[in-house]
Amino acid sequence: MSAVTPPTERRVSARVGAISESATLAVDAKAKALKAAGRPVIGFGAGEPDFPTPDYIVEAAVEACKNPKYHRYTPAGGLPELKAAIAAKTLRDSGYEPEVSEILVTNGGKQAIYEAFAAILDPGDEVIVPAPYWTTYPESIRLAGGVPVEVVADETTGYRVSVEQLEAARTEKTKVVLFVSPSNPTGAVYSREDAEAIGRWALEHGLWVMTDEIYEHLVYGDAQFTSLPALLPELRDKCVVVNGVAKTYAMTGWRVGWIIGPKDVVKAATNLQSHATSNVSNVAQAAAIAAVSGDLTAVDKMREAFDRRRRTIVRMLNEIDGVLCPEPEGAFYAYPSVKALVGENAKEIRGKRPQNTVELAALILEEAEVAVVPGEAFGTPGYLRLSYALGDEDLVEGVSRLQKLLAEARD
Predict the structure, then answer these.
(1) In the CATH scheme, what architecture does the domain 7-52+298-406 have?
(2) Which residue, of 42, 234, 332, 395, has the fewest CB within 10 Å?
(3) What are the residue boundaries of the Aminotransferase class I/classII large domain, all occurrences included (predicted)?
């Protein structure tokens, strides 16, 4: 019988010690370290645009640096002028206009997600989490005292879960359902009809909905972004939206996100943030005002490039024996199934037979000098995530290396 470590001898709390590091950031860090050591690594790991932040946004930050009013503390919940700009932007892009008191400006989308869950969940409350999921969702739920309940979709449904699957996962402890469209890591986009069906199901059972709209502008082809609280106004009293400037405006390093939700939830999350971080950097908030208030010309140009890369990466991945890659409809990720290359199906590649996608990703990094993220990080072993938010030449070179390496697979 193993002994339990007494609290006085435990150096790291059980709550925080149970949290794993971000797998996507870990892969990106390793790729950058290898590059710094002189190896020609091509990284498909990080989920960030390769474009610079548009000039007009940077200029707004420069001017803010010179303004003494931004050299001091400002309201913990965000600059009033940014909140007003977010409300106007939400009306423009989503079709509904929240009140300023329903908005909290956060240090990026991750803080928005954690604070929203922390404001809603009590210990033991369950959150239905469609998988594949972004790595931060279940960790934020656990840190807030909740219990993530995974509902898995695969390539046969375009990585979209059904109402029937959600209902099968619902228990008396279910409090929240997570809805993400477009999705990280799969690029899946729900149709208006499917989104409405999920929203009405949540309403029927009195559930909260947490919806992440960070990729709202990155949709391709015939796919369309649907905002649940705009589609179903009656859902707004139990719906929390998280969003930010990171993906749309190539501002991942600026760290500005936000929560939109019922006033009592936003007030509770604001109280939490007032003790955790106080206000978001004023300079970054000034830049965010310029971003959300400006037109979408720069965004449209980035989306055109992502669309071109999307079609290229899907074509090239599907040319590899044992790889099946559905065409993503949004975001900037491809999520191919490589189940035919691992485990009992594993073939020998340069003396190794990878038993899972963690081992396959490690082999690809070592032998092809290409960094990808294994599906285990997203709750679904047997897949790889590749971000196509990198230059066209690097994308083609990186997937060509994959093609060459995996072509060597032998029984």
Answers:
(1) Alpha-Beta Complex (3.90)
(2) 234
(3) 40-397
